[in-house]
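Q: I have 331 residues here and want to know how they pack in 3D. Can you give me a structure?
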Amino acid sequence: MLDDILITPVTDAFGQLQQWLFEAVVQPVMFALGMGNLLEDAYGATGWLLVGLIQLLLMLAVIAPLQRWRPVERGAHGAAVRADAIYTLVHRLGLFRVAMFFSVEPLLDALFGQARVSGLDGWQLDAVAALWWPGVTDTAWASFVLYLVVFDLVDYWIHRGQHHFDRWWALHAVHHSQRHMTMWSDNRNHLLDDLIRDLIIAFTARAIGVPPGQFVAVVAVTQLIENLSHANARVSFGWLGERLLVGPRFHRLHHAIGLGHEGAQPGTLGGCNFAVLFPVWDMLFDTARFDGHFEPTGIRDQLPEYGGRDYGTGFWAQQWLGLKRLLGDRT
């Protein structure tokens, strides 16, 4: 019944929009470019493009007004924020997904194909869960919630790794170097950092047998909540709400200078509030802090008294400086 009310109408409408967008725009372009042999893949890419367009509309219609209504910082704009918008467009309009298609997907196809030849195969998480707890995955809605929880746990440990390993932090620092965090800041990442994370997530999806439609939905919902949690909005979910879902105040503490993503001493790693969606992981693994306010964001060594390190203002400068840090540049 819940599927009929919530899932089926949405998936039907999405399928119709995807078909229209593919036939009206994508398919003619593919033929014009002589890429008719990739139409099946292009149809899947059209789904990701449509999701991105819907996300952008929701960001502008819902999260942007929140930022204007109760901003943490007034005047959060300029070149650095415009660069964040570029990151968002690169991801939400499918440009990064196309790069994934030509790099990660063939690698995963080869890896899992060889595994099947060797007698190893992935397992269906929802089927295994049904054996442990009969009825838990009888609906698409229940399966979606299960996948959402599993991927969020994986994301939590990816995030811990980004803050634990010096070389990985050298890339992830691009994300934390934003001094004026907004809803556009979620996708402000070094492209190599994104590639590592997406490789882990895509591998997990293959390994536990997530249907493509469910995977798209999980990614879409996760990204939208991340846009909200990065918003320049003085919004709190209250005592209980902040323990159920990551919000702007909880996540802003993670970005706070010298508090949320650094150790007690300059130049050391550490931090708190690593959860992407559900603070329960921070609570379980003793990395949660709920005592924060809306602190200034950035990295300690950006401050003049700690050296005033340059992390770049524009997209390409941030990418180049991230690679230099990865290779050991300490300037």
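Q: Anything worth noting?
A: The CA atoms of residues 54 and 123 lie 32 Å apart. The chain is about 65% helix and 0% strand.
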